[in-house]
Design a protein that fits this description.
By secondary structure, the chain is mainly alpha-helical. Helices cover 62% and strands 6% of the residues. It has one domain: Multidrug-efflux Transporter Regulator, Chain: A, Domain 2 (Orthogonal Bundle), CATH 1.10.1660. It holds the Pfam family MerR_1.
């Protein structure tokens, strides 16, 4: 791996750069919270060669959203399901918008 490869990872939202302890610290939560959302399948951390959990920035953003819901009184399992459904809705809306743009470019409105 070259130095350029290492630096390019700094911009990669999916690179598992954070240990469980650091991730929990950044989120202002506990490692047990991260384990709980992992068990609920909200996020699946990658594992280091030594078997330690590693989290990406993308995963931390998802975990932060779940934590907001938990802090508002939502049970962890329900918070994870809400975040998953929000993510699925966002993806469906993105796909629909893409299909609309494609349809509109294939059938431009005619002037009358």
């Amino acid at each position: 791996m070259t130095a350029d490869d290492s630096f390019s990872r700094l911009d990669d939202d999916d690179y598992p750069a954070y240990t469980m302890g650091r991730a929990a610290e950044m989120l202002g939560t506990t490692p047990s919270f991260l384990r709980a959302i992992g068990e609920a399948r909200l996020i699946t951390p990658l594992r280091s060669e030594g078997g330690h959990r590693r989290y990406s920035r993308y995963q931390l953003r998802i975990a932060a959203r779940a934590r907001e819901l938990v802090d508002q009184g939502t049970p962890v399992e329900a918070a994870c399901r809400i975040v998953i459904l929000e993510d699925q809705l966002e993806e469906a809306q993105r796909i629909n918008a893409e299909h609309r743009r494609t349809a509109e470019s294939a059938n431009p409105p005619t002037a009358t």
